[in-house]
Amino acid sequence: MSKHYASIAFTDDVRTVQSEHGSDGFYGRKVAAGTASPGADPLTDDEKDYLIERDGFFLASVSETGWPYVQFRGGKPGFIHSIDDHTIGWADFRGNLQYVSTGNVSGDDRVAIIALDYANQRRLKIFGHARIVTVEEDPELVKSLTDDTYDAVIERAVLVTVEAYDWNCPQHITPRYTIAELESALSPLRDQLTTLQAENARLREQLANSQR
């Protein structure tokens, strides 16, 4: 848990519930430490390396009516870029043209991100402020976030200034694997199967020849 995460996440209502369950003393000290230290928490190499390996994440924004909205953002691993120690960004691909997240952050730039590594049961949560950058505003930035090998229409870039983050408990994350993650385990099995099939064919031929 980064220094300021608790001071953002643990509101008075949250701390009331923590008090009811006996965890307010531990987390209260983290709230106090974060409140006493101004400024955003910098990303370390651990967070940067983790994010660049992800092929998707969940993005939460808040509408002007107060309703939260969660959307999945995906792409090839590497589509999430660490711009600097306080900023991440990605090229925003054309979707169903609802623009709910884009509209929400134009009114309230606060967002939350959850990036999951299902295979290794890891989860990173991020609080930040999002900013939309169009191609017309900064074509070089959008280009720097674009993967030319990925077949998608880029409409804009999204930059998120990170305020705080937390590596969440791995409990209850069901392990799931992408095709790429399975390939390293399946490839040797395919090779072994090919070898066994060839050996089986050779033995059958030897047996057939011996019976003539």
Automatic annotation (TrEMBL):
<dbReference type="Pfam" id="PF01243">
    <property type="entry name" value="PNPOx_N"/>
</dbReference>
<keyword id="KW-0175">Coiled coil</keyword>
<protein>
    <submittedName>
        <fullName>Pyridoxamine 5-phosphate oxidase</fullName>
    </submittedName>
</protein>
<feature type="domain" description="Pyridoxamine 5'-phosphate oxidase N-terminal">
    <location>
        <begin position="48"/>
        <end position="142"/>
    </location>
</feature>
<dbReference type="InterPro" id="IPR012349">
    <property type="entry name" value="Split_barrel_FMN-bd"/>
</dbReference>
<feature type="coiled-coil region">
    <location>
        <begin position="179"/>
        <end position="206"/>
    </location>
</feature>
<dbReference type="InterPro" id="IPR011576">
    <property type="entry name" value="Pyridox_Oxase_N"/>
</dbReference>
